[in-house]
Amino acid sequence: MRRRDFLHRSTTLGAAACVGLAAAPGATTAATPGTPPPTQPKPPAIAIPPFRLEEFGITELQHDMASGRSTASGLVEAYLERIEAIDRHGPQLRSVIELNPDALSIARELDKERASKGPRGPLHGIPVLLKDNIDTHDRMTTTAGSLALSGSIPPRDAFLVERLRSAGAVILGKTNLSEWANFRGSHSISGWSGRGGLTRNPYATDRSTSGSSAGSAAAVSANLCAVAVGTETDGSIVSPSSYCGIVGLKPTVGLISRSGVIPISASQDTAGPMARTVADAAALLGALVGVDPRDPATLGSQGKGFPDYTRFLDPKGLRGARLGIAREQFHLNRLTDPVLEAALAALRRVGAELVDPIVIPPLRAAGDPEQEVMLHEFKAGLNEYFRSLGPAAPVGSLRDLIAFNERNQDRELGYFGQEILIEAEKKGPLTDPAYLEAKGKCSAWGAELEKFIETHRLDAIVAPTTGPAHVLDLVTGDRGLGGSSTYAAVSGLPSITVPCGSVSGLPMGLSFIAGRWQEGRLLSLGYAFEQATRARRL
Prior knowledge:
two-stranded antiparallel ribbon, globular, alpha/beta, disordered N terminus
């Protein structure tokens, strides 16, 4: 199914309808009529070595370095060992697609700088992972998970990478993702890419990570890094964050530059922080924001962003907050209902005023304008990205990419196709009447949603991010219990997901969606909710 159909279509969540990946290929055969199904052998327990930095946040890591108990190079070595034990071996999460061969030398230089000048700020020496659609001009490649871009080194860092390096962060490596940010085939498998294989959920390795920022979510959740950067067009930060039990913040479009990020939609794309705590997400966000002449969308953020978002962390941030409950999103199934109602009870308990229910204006009166916009903008944006790579680019256009996949079907198209790429290639330029009409509908709906929040005096709209992680299925692709990401995606508004509980050990997240440039308010609400519930579990 298409990337957004996964987020919005409700289906039954259960292993009976799926081919689970816990068993080795060929280990079972279909039962004949009248015979009981074969029992699956329980996978052997995997010994996970102890990890001293488990659940350490940025503050704890900085304290360790300031006290001399650790160093930036020591942190890098520790996380590299953890990646080797958990990602490459053990449960083999396959969340990290490539490691930075210069990470250790960069960390050593930052250690020298700390000793001589002191730290630059909260990210000095902190190991950070980046989604593999974010350009780095170093000895790592940037491929969006596609074999078509194997070996591609962009001519310069993405703007957000420049910001991270300036803040003293150590780029530890790149994370796997749903190939082309899950904008390739109509029956896609979230977390799978031709280059990186399939990323697995740390809570249950036969379950999905969701996507497309699959590797970033799994790596953060499994303590393979301090924090990570993901990207979102519709759900690609918040959905995998919810599935993997972490905090994900999707900012207002334009708060973080997209220059040097492989695009889907100029109208909706953004990068954002993914972390185990709201405090860490706030610390990372401050390092990512900034006006970038290469991305005109950031011009609107002038004076709207902050270098330090930790100032908004208030354990009493929900007291008196007016929250609109998108009740039509809440009934996922009988197992999730108690978790969500308990989350609402927690909001009331700490002093929030719940406007329950609210009825949000519908987007899809006719057709699917969001998909139409994404198809047109993907073709235009991707072709421009390929041109930016220069004459050495492995592929030069969307048409070339489609042809590459056809020539390499065994490696790229074995599990699902490239129908979305083909559909996008058929679209005209951004002056096409069909695009302009769809763009107008989306813009009008986004303005209506903003007006709705303002008219009802809401600090935020509250909805479940999505359901618990579905079983991996290489035959029919993704399935899920719906999601609420499209509200913020189409409108360009910010949202944050925070763990709110679990179903059978599988995490769930609660989303808060606010007005434009209200990231500080969202962090305040999310932090207060996190402190009141302490819902994240290892």
